[in-house]
Design goal:
This protein is mainly β and 682 residues long. It has no helices and 55 strands. Strands 1-55-54-53 form a 4-stranded antiparallel β-sheet, with no helix packed on it.
């Protein structure tokens, strides 16, 4: 089976490459210098450490197994080569040979079973030590060759009770001395002499009052002062060369990056703030310039700063979630790259060229969440709804765009479009779009005008609708579908309750905007639906925040049937013709697609292959046969043969899939990073 790209819509790819971590979140990154070249190590929330060749993108090793999350990595030179130190939720520091994939017999006991959050190599004369920082509030200095602990530095607790977890670590030289710097939850950066173990200096921040009182507030003689330092936890540290001198860069929960003179304790510059915390900083060479890279959790971007001038040089965008995994520089023979690790809802490691020129046109930036095909005689449009409230129409062949409802915001808003569908109303095609703000918008795509808006809108938020039963409609709509009944097309909606814990499945007359009846009341949240036309009646299948598929008659006069089989939330449903019968397909958080026999309520087939949530389902028509397309968080679209029930094609996509829609052999893929239109051939 073949496919080709017709068009794309989105910000465009700014990264050099994207490496799939196979996990929900990347928690740590580091460069590993080996004789054959620099390698990139990534620590995952599933306990694995993956090693890649950044030039080819090839995964060369996988270390560890599925245990506790990895939060810190560090490459440590030893006489026989390089060891990779791995710290995380299990409270120990493991040592691995990155070339062979074998665990070293050397052991580092760790931090009394508490989380290990930071690791760094500490050059000291002709040997290199390892520093580790953890939730027990200490920094520990280890001699790996001798296999012993040299020092334990107090990071602010008396005793070590974990009130001030250590987050970021860094080694640097101050006035000719080897120094270890550590940042913690009280906003203070502490410096110790690596030889004597004595404190050198504190770069004072201010505790975040929203996190509760910390023990430092109760120390005798403590006097609150206005701080030039961070006003919350310090997550990350790195060394920067600035005009021939060593500068310490720190990033924290307050969203800022601060540059410190470690000799005097003065703040030299304050960069930001950005949106959300700063989880990673590192120095990188871009041509003849030294730049400072920073990543965080608010805007999903990687920022490049000129540390000398404070200028924001560039923002790289491509991650589809918070960048929790930090950032590191990768020195290669011809250039230096940057690697950044995506957190939850992303899970990708992205490589960037800091010297690359920005694109001339940044493109559309929004997260697409729902799709449908809109047939218009001899051509087909595709409709999209986004988390920022935008509704757009796209030519399936060319990608030309018409905005039904435009939005400038990129991020999630209260107008988040929950669902779109097409149906004929009064002899003309109509696009219906429902929103989490409680509105149903009916739009004529030929005339380019709205027919009506039912319910609340940003312009009239008080426009509540009463149901046929006399109740106020008070829910956030998350799905919509057409329902054929008695020779006409009705409109069905479902959603999440705004008041209480009961979601409603409702039927509407799209010609008048009148609410006809409430089909069902469901305790919980619903997020997707479809109508199933059977010879004797029409069913509504609804799924949501449980592992069941719920079936209701559209008459609303019976109790629901529950299809049981999934082991996670169910995200998508669609009717599927198989051998003259109509089955129901469902996609779930458990990574499977199930085909259900509606007569018996039993699972007919389980389609396995996705490694994460399945979010989108759609039917493709290819040369007289029907193929089921599924897409998920694992960034793959799979095509399934419905005669042999096997995967006949895998299509890689750039970001997690949120929805699919098809018209004939044209498949539109919605992701958190853009749209992709494909022509699929048998």
């Amino acid at each position: 089976m073949t496919y080709r790209t017709l068009w794309t819509a989105g910000p465009g790819r700014a990264e050099v490459s994207a490496l799939d971590s196979g996990a929900q979140a990347v928690e740590a990154l580091c460069a590993v210098p080996l004789p054959e070249g620099t390698r990139l190590a990534g620590g995952m929330d599933d306990g694995r450490v993956r090693i890649w060749d950044p030039v080819t993108g090839e995964e060369t090793r996988v270390l560890g197994d599925q245990r506790s999350a990895v939060f810190a990595l560090c490459a440590v030179p030893v006489p026989e080569g390089v060891l990779l130190a791995v710290g995380g939720a299990n409270g120990t520091v493991e040592l691995w040979d990155p070339r062979t994939g074998e665990r070293s017999p050397r052991t580092v006991p760790g931090h009394d079973g508490r989380l290990v959050n930071g690791l760094c190599a500490v050059p000291l004369g002709d040997r290199v030590l390892l520093a580790s920082g953890g939730d027990d509030g200490t920094v520990r200095l280890w001699d790996l060759a001798a296999g012993r602990q040299l020092h334990v530095f107090d990071a602010g607790t008396e005793p070590f009770d974990g009130a001030h977890p250590v987050r970021g670590l860094c080694a640097l030289a101050v006035d000719g001395r080897a120094v270890v710097a550590a940042g913690g939850d009280d906003g203070t950066i502490r410096l110790w002499d690596a030889v004597t173990g004595r404190p050198v200096r504190e770069l004072v921040g201010r505790p975040d009052p929203t996190r509760g009182a910390t023990c430092v507030l109760y120390r005798p003689g403590y006097v609150p002062v206005d701080s030039v330092g961070h006003t919350g936890p310090v997550y990350t540290l790195c060394v920067v060369s600035l005009d021939g001198r060593t500068v310490l860069a720190s990033g924290g929960d307050d969203g800022t990056i601060r540059l410190w003179d470690p000799g005097s304790g003065d703040v030299l510059r304050r960069l930001g703030p950005g949106r959300g915390g700063t989880y990673g900083v590192c120095e990188v060479r871009a041509g003849d310039r030294t730049l400072l890279a920073g990543v965080g959790g608010g805007d999903y971007g990687l920022r490049l700063w000129d540390p000398g001038t404070g200028e924001l040089v560039r923002v790289f965008e491509g991650h589809t979630g918070p960048v929790w995994g930090g950032v590191c520089a990768l020195p290669l023979p011809d250039r230096a790259l940057l690697a950044s690790g995506g957190g939850k809802f992303d899970g990708m490691v992205r490589l960037w060229d800091p010297a690359a020129e920005p694109p001339a046109c940044p493109g559309l930036r929004e997260s697409f969440d729902t799709l449908c095909a809109v047939p218009l005689g001899d051509r087909t449009l595709m409709a999209s709804g986004s988390t920022n409230g935008a509704v757009r129409l796209w030519d399936a062949e060319t990608g030309s765009r018409t905005d039904v409802l435009d939005r400038e915001e990129r991020d999630y808003t209260g107008d988040w479009v929950g669902g779109v569908c097409a149906l004929p109303v009064g002899g003309r095609p109509v696009l219906a779009a429902v929103s989490r703000n409680g509105s149903v918008r009916l739009h004529d795509p030929v005339a380019g005008e709205d027919i009506r808006v039912i319910g609340r809108t940003p312009q009239d938020p008080s426009a509540w609708v009463r149901t046929a039963e006399g109740e106020l409609v008070s829910e956030a709509f998350t799905a919509v579908c057409p329902v054929p009944q008695e020779g006409r097309q009705l409109l069905a909606t479902c959603g999440e309750p705004l008041l209480g814990d009961v979601a409603n499945v409702r039927l509407w007359n799209p010609e008048t905007g009148e609410h006809l009846r409430t089909v069902a009341r469901h305790k919980g949240k619903l997020r997707a639906m479809c109508a199933i036309t059977l010879p004797e009646h029409t069913l509504l299948a609804c799924v949501g925040w449980d592992s069941y598929v719920w079936l209701w008659h559209t008459t609303g006069d019976d109790h629901p049937a529950a299809l049981v089989g999934h082991s996670g939330w169910v995200n998508a449903v669609c009717a599927v013709p198989v051998d003259g019968r109509t089955l129901l397909a469902s996609g779930s958080h458990d990574g499977t697609v199930r085909l259900w026999d509606l007569a018996t309520g039993r699972t007919e087939q389980v389609l396995r292959g996705h490694q994460d949530w399945v979010r989108g389902l759609s039917l493709l028509s290819l040369g007289g046969r029907t193929v089921l397309a599924s897409g998920g968080k694992d960034r793959w679209v799979r095509l399934w043969d419905l005669e042999e029930f096997r995967c006949v094609a895998k299509i890689p996509v750039h970001s997690p899939v949120s929805a699919l829609a098809a018209a004939g052999d044209r498949l539109l893929v919605a992701t958190s990073g853009g749209l992709l239109a494909l022509a699929v051939g048998g």
